[in-house]
Amino acid sequence: MTEETYSTYYYSDPTSSDSNMHHLVIQSILKLDDLPWRWHAEKPDESMVDPIWDNKTNGWVENDPTSKTQIIANLQTKAKQLEQMNKNQETSLTSISKNQAEMLKMMAPLLAKGGKTNA
Fold this sequence. Notes:
The protein is of the alpha+beta class. It has one helix at 68-112; strands spanning 7-11, 24-28, 39-40, 51-54, 59-62.
């Protein structure tokens, strides 16, 4: 079956915190006369970064970056970044602690002599 025989539809859930669900492309071998809830035949404008379907205008609009779903999505991304930074810092601190412990072991004989090399 070639690409031309497929019908293309677009699913939009503007309330989803997953931005992939804001404008999902659906390929179907069937031509649908009646589209399911939140399915649309009209393609969103290519210039839109995060298009969502607006029932008030009955068309695609750019998702408002100040909307609750956008704020939640941004916060989730930032939370993941902070978790990764925390893990990286924990790894660094563990490594520093191990290095300090090894250095103290190596310096213990010197410190036992009062810091003098020739006692």
